[in-house]
Structure formats: C-alpha cells, structure tokens
Design goal:
The structure holds 2 protein chains of 2 kinds. By secondary structure, chain A is mainly α. Chain A contains 4 helices and 2 strands. Chain A has a two-stranded antiparallel ribbon. In chain A, helix 1 crosses helix 2. The longest helix of chain A has 27 residues. Chain B is mainly alpha-helical. Classes of the chains: A mainly alpha, B mainly alpha.
Chain lengths: 95, 150
C-alpha cells in the first residue's frame, strides 16, 4: 500500500501531526518513505478536498487535522481494501 | 545538497508557495538531504505546476467557449429576427444600430465591402469566432491583472 493520500489520512487518524511527524509515522507503520514533494502534493490535494485542515499554530511546522469528511473517506477506502484483502487470502488458501 | 533542494522548491507555482512555502521549508530543514529528496521535490514542483497550469487552461478555455456561445446565440437570434421580420416594413435605424456592436464581424465585412454576400452560416461562425477572440483578450487581461494583484 503506497497511496500517499491514504497513508497521510491513516497517520492523522490518531491525532494532529505536522509534515515531518507524518513522514516519520508513515515510515514506522507502513515502511514507506514519502519524499517532501510527494507528501506536500498529497497534503495540497487532501486539503483542497476538505479531508484535512491546518490547525492554528505559531510554529513554522504546520500541524494538520483529519476532518469528518476525511475520516469518512478513510473508513470507506479501508473497508474496500479490507474486502480485497479478505477475498485475496480466501482465494490463496483454496490454491 | 540542502541548498539545491531549497532552490528546487522555488520551482513550485507562486500561488502554492504563498500558502505552503513556510511549512514546506520547515519540513526541508527536518529531512535528511539527499539526491532522493532533491528528485522528489523537483518531481513535486513539476507536477504541481502542470496541475495548476492545466486547471487555469481549462477554466480559461471554458470561458472562451462561453464567449463563442454568446456570439453564436446573438447572431443566430438576429438571423431569426431578420428571417421572420415582415419584409414589407423597412427595418428601423435603431435595429441596425443594435446589430453593429453585437455583430462586429458582420459590421466589419459590411464596412469593407457592402456588396459582399455574407450568408447566415458564415455570419454565425464569424461572430462566434469574433466573440471567442474577444473572450481570449478579456481572459488574458483578467489573468494578467490577477497575477499583478497577487
């Protein structure tokens, strides 16, 4: 799984994080190294779609928060992935 | 390498930089610089530029099509009016005065050669093209003034 949008949403699901914290978290839980350009390309898209929003801060590092729409989208996408995983494993066991 | 990555970040569109530059530079301070990061920032800048330019082109293209559509409808409307008008009653000067600014291509042809046989189809196409050209000029100025105001 290497879709940066889903990885970022999954990372923000357990709390607000800034760019670098998201990168580190994704590397820890998914073993995927997102580059800064890829990360901010995805952050731009997710913010435009209303799935994440910036949290007020005085720091240069801007934290982001998952919105209700983002949470719904993540749940739908994960449910879709879950069914693919379930079917995939079931078919593998038959072989 | 860090300096190169910072330079590459300047390739992002200015509108994007206004919103994200501060936090993006903070992120660049945190990441370990390397060729992979440089390539990723370059790739991201190009992708963002293409994405934003493309959406601009689509928006301007749509507005120009709207202008051409207005030109088409106006000339078709006049065509319908002249075709259905009672030929026994002469067309008043006020009508002619209204047709000139709304049908600039037809007015120009009439001015250059009053005897030129301009058919309805040619008039409609010429008018749609003229309106599209006006739309292109207006949208170009609008975009320039928008960029200057930023």
């Amino acid at each position: 799984m290497s879709d940066p949008n889903l990885l970022i949403l999954a990372s923000l699901a357990d709390g607000d994080k800034h760019g670098y914290a998201i990168m580190v978290d994704i590397h820890t839980f998914a073993d995927v190294e997102l580059g800064p350009g890829t990360l901010y390309g995805a952050i731009t898209r997710l913010e435009e779609r209303g799935f994440i929003r910036p949290v007020a801060t005085d720091d240069r590092r801007q934290p982001y928060r998952l919105t209700a729409a983002g949470r719904r989208y993540l749940e739908e996408e994960l449910a879709g992935l879950q069914s693919v995983v379930r079917v995939g494993f079931r078919r593998l066991r038959k072989v | 390498m860090k300096r190169l990555i910072r330079l590459a970040s300047w390739l992002y569109p200015s509108s994007w930089r206004r919103r994200y530059a501060r936090e993006f530079e903070a992120l660049l301070d945190d990441v370990k610089p390397g060729p992979r990061q440089l390539f990723d920032v370059l790739k991201g800048a190009i992708a963002m530029r293409v994405r934003m330019e493309w959406s601009d082109i689509m928006r301007i293209g749509f507005r120009i099509i709207m202008w051409a559509g207005a030109g088409f409808l106006i000339s078709a409307g006049w065509g319908f009016y002249f075709a259905s008008a009672n030929k026994a009653i002469p067309i008043g000067p006020i009508v002619y005065a209204l047709t000139r600014p709304t049908l600039p291509a037809v007015a120009l042809v009439e001015y250059l050669d009053p005897n030129y046989p301009l058919g309805l189809r040619a008039a409609v196409i010429a008018n749609a093209a003229t309106y599209a050209l006006v739309g292109l000029i207006v949208e170009t100025f609008r975009r320039r003034s928008h960029i200057l105001h930023i």
